[in-house]
Amino acid sequence: MEAAPKPKKTIKTIAKNKTAMPEQDPAARARNWSEVTLGYSEEQAVAEAARCIQCKKPGCIAGCPVAINIPGFIQAVENRDFRKAYDVLAADNVLPAICGRVCPQETQCEAVCIVGNKLEPVGIGRLERFVGDMALKNGWSLATSVKPNGHKAAMIGSGPASITCAVDLARAGVDVTIYEALHTAGGVLKYGIPEFRLPKKLIDRELEALKGLGVKVVTNAIIGRLFTIPQLMQEMGYETVFIGVGAGYPKLMGIPGEGLNGIFSANEYLTRVNLMRAYQHPQADTPTGMGKRVAVIGAGNTAMDACRVSIRMGAEEVYCVYRRTKKESPARAEEVHHAEEEGVKFNWLTAPVRILGDEHGWVRAMECIRMELGEPDASGRASPVPVKGSEFLFEVDTIVYAIGTSANPIVAQTTPGLKLNKRGYIDVSPDTQMTSISGVFAGGDIVTGGATVILAMGAGRKAAHAMLQYMGLATAAEPVQQAK
């Protein structure tokens, strides 16, 4: 006897709210480095997947920078066919466990979820993490027997853009080598995102998939110092090169006192803690030089990371200083909420104007001014306007700048003919990611400025297809082909 068909799901028949994500207690997690969010159980994942109504025109796919078949993998989760869910998901996203944790799904795929028009949108990111974690737990991978085709490509940098590009090329049979300036691969995933948001062992396990596809990784290799892009192509036999070096140069405000001791860029501070393992003190002897009263300037995700790291590193008071309001904060709402729960104190509508030091040259205070919101600026957000006469002193002994980054200039300085835009980032064709030099492509933060992991991956995927076309291995109409 055939089973009765399942009744059609509608907005009226599904759960109104997302299945809650289990989390550590705020008081406990503020003193440890374990993951804050604990992930779904199988039952929770199936329950959340059941909220997807499998709409006829799923906007979520178009809302994803790498165009994951989101309804397909969610349907497989609902059917408890978790291996199929992974196969569907990983066909387009080689880092699902990572993206499920750090991507801003609320402004991308979930923002256009049909369910979200009336109820809370489907928890796509939470389901992506569940499937990615299950794949790691069970040792699943998409590694296949790849037949080499004799073509060679080099990736400069080992962040998400380069990883995605490398995987797509390797699946097509290209001999790929990644060159990483630091002593370990992973790029911003490793040095920029704290352990409690993205465990290092998880990144390492995701990167193992590269070896299964034959991708080689060379660390401690600074392109532009060890050798140049022209050397890669003219002397080392690479037909095409992808530049994914990120944008690691810090930005400061240009206010008096920025030369004092006790001032960090967020990149430097987070690298010391994340990559150089200062969070494992005393097992690791990497110093941070952090005081007891820390002010973090900015309110993006990096600023939230710096604030929450400072709490865990033992700061007595941590302040987030931002010239706009909470509404205009570029950080994910979840990150701001977690920071608030953990004890970070927010100073909205506040801007530093001067930093004061003691007789030994160390930070002792900031002079700040109150702000009010004016007309929208080019970003669409209300412009912060100083309130005359509202200056006040803010006692701190450590300041972390988290107001964005600038382009790393080393590659451009050593690559004749590489065109940059007016902000110093690499100029590329929006359709192919090719630079002004034939055969040289670029993507990620070195092109866009600081952005998200998934946007960098989207650029890497677009570049991979164009690189295959350049090498005569694909046509414009063909998708990236996986070698058999």
Q: Which percent band covers the strand fraction? A: 15-25%
Structural class by sheet pairing and helices: alpha/beta
Number of domains: 3
Report mean pLDDT, rounded to a whole number. 91
Overall helicity: 25-40%
Low-confidence stretches: 479-484
Main sheet?
A: 5 strands, parallel
DSSP E strands, number: 16
Description:
By secondary structure, the protein is of the alpha/beta class. The chain folds into three domains: 26-138, Fumarate Reductase Iron-sulfur Protein, Chain B, domain 2 (Orthogonal Bundle), CATH 1.10.1060.10; 152-248 and 407-470, FAD/NAD(P)-binding domain, CATH 3.50.50.60; 252-404, FAD/NAD(P)-binding domain (3-Layer(bba) Sandwich). Helix content is 31%, strand content 15%. It has 17 helices and 16 strands. The protein has helices spanning 26-29, 42-49, 59-63, 70-78, 82-90, 96-102, 124-138, 160-171, 188-191, 200-212, 229-234, 266-274, 301-312, 333-341, 410-413, 445-448, 453-470, and strands at residues 152-156, 175-179, 216-218, 240-243, 249-250, 263-265, 293-297, 317-321, 345-347, 350-357, 363-376, 382-386, 392-395, 398-401, 405-406, 440-442. A hairpin with a 5-residue loop joins strand 11 and strand 12. The longest helix is centred in the last third of the chain and has 18 residues, at 453-470. It is globular and about 65 Å long. It starts with 25 loop residues before the first helix and ends in a 14-residue tail after the last helix. Mean pLDDT is 91; it is low at 479-484.
What is the secondary structure topology, with strand pairs?
Elements: H1 26-29, H2 42-49, H3 59-63, H4 70-78, H5 82-90, H6 96-102, H7 124-138, E1 152-156, H8 160-171, E2 175-179, H9 188-191, H10 200-212, E3 216-218, H11 229-234, E4 240-243, E5 249-250, E6 263-265, H12 266-274, E7 293-297, H13 301-312, E8 317-321, H14 333-341, E9 345-347, E10 350-357, E11 363-376, E12 382-386, E13 392-395, E14 398-401, E15 405-406, H15 410-413, E16 440-442, H16 445-448, H17 453-470
Parallel strand pairs: 1-2, 1-4, 2-3, 4-16, 6-14, 7-8, 7-14, 8-9
Antiparallel strand pairs: 5-15, 10-11, 11-12, 11-13
Helix pairs in contact: 2-4, 2-7, 4-5, 5-7, 6-7, 8-17, 12-13
